[in-house]
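## tool: complex_structure
## caller: assistant
## args:
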Amino acid sequence: MPSFPKQLSIIPVPGIPEIKPGDDLVRILAAAAGEAGISIEEGDIVVFAQKIVSKAEGRIVDLNEVEPSPFAESVARTLGKDPRLVEVIFSETTKVIRMDQRKPDKGRLIVETRGGIISANAGVDASNVSGGDRVTLLPLDSDESARKLAEDIKRAFGVDAAVIITDTVGRPWRDGLVDIAIGCHGMKAMRDLRGGLDAKGMPLIATVMADADELASAAGLVMEKASSAPVVIIRGYEYEKGGTGAREIIRDPEEDLFR
Amino acid sequence: MPSFPKQLSIIPVPGIPEIKPGDDLVRILAAAAGEAGISIEEGDIVVFAQKIVSKAEGRIVDLNEVEPSPFAESVARTLGKDPRLVEVIFSETTKVIRMDQRKPDKGRLIVETRGGIISANAGVDASNVSGGDRVTLLPLDSDESARKLAEDIKRAFGVDAAVIITDTVGRPWRDGLVDIAIGCHGMKAMRDLRGGLDAKGMPLIATVMADADELASAAGLVMEKASSAPVVIIRGYEYEKGGTGAREIIRDPEEDLFR
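## result:
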């Protein structure tokens, strides 16, 4: 039986400034954390909001430079959306999962992205981007972005920390948004408890926990969309090193009853 | 702009024994927490795993006393399940959302419960129940269960704490399980950021966070299905009092694109 779990600390890092394309996120984190007297320790999990990773990687599109196709124009009319935004969404999309046009000005477009994330508008987002008509796209490969950040953390802080990149998404059946892991490095994104025994000695069946998603949600509690806490440190969580990234959490479409 | 979020502590309470029907959970919690030197403070969120709430409330069925209907027998054959278990699942179900019979011995039954939760097997669960063929059902009204627990906490500890009851569920599109809130009292389950401004002064659109679900996931990280930490205290999270329970998170079926 595993040892009793430790207490976790969920630590938002204050003082992260607005991020611009080309910024070195870990250098900025090191400065902000140092200023706040926060260290990064061996075994910490450092959680980055997708928005700042996208900005640092220059994944920003100015809608004024987008020429919508006739198809995007037509979908945009149907859904009551900006046709330039629809064009950008489609450029990120491999499959439309649902399109809801019942409300003329509040149409919904749920799509699968190239990275396998299913979300509204392919994660294309206008909030928290300064400069009129600019939107952010998800990182091209969030697991690779997480790998690079973990490498930079190793270099800057001299410790092995896991890295998770989160996005805020809606879900079927339940209202409200939650944070999930779209990128992960340095820890297994899933925790397989199968084959173990429960506290009463009964075998645990079908218990594979989406650890990286639960960590993303825990960090999301203090990321506070409105108050600039896009980096959060989780301390005390015992994870298994290795794994193949957040991509591991994406369900095989063959096994998915809701696509 | 809101103040910078505080650090959170996620504190598993050790020493909770096996729970039996009729047990007073808060009395047991008080003894275990006292023994471990853990206090419950004003503004804490006390998170209970559904399993122990169900057990204390006597929501246990002995499959040996279940007489499956011919319909349950037939569905059980199709899905490779115990017909008595299928009978119990159907007794908790208002609507079958998906039935997957492609794998003869691993059929899936995703249903909506009377309480509006959508999950596999209506939350009927055999793990962590001692005594051969016994299974637990979800509490009859988890928001009401949370209300009673909050009242008992007020009486035992003299503080106002919010209470969340969690269950572990699967999700469309993503593998692995996460913990969600099926009951909530003493805090708003959802946090509405609409109308506020983001860090750059842009209006926040459509940002309603499912706070209670993110808190459930944070607690789930240390609940450790295998090691008896069914009560977790979350400290430092600033929530709004009031609200109408976890039921608030259940999406209006009219608005749901996936039922």
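## assistant note: Helices of chain A lie at 25-36, 50-56, 70-79, 83-91, 142-157, 211-223. Chain A is about 25% helix and 20% strand. Handing back to user.
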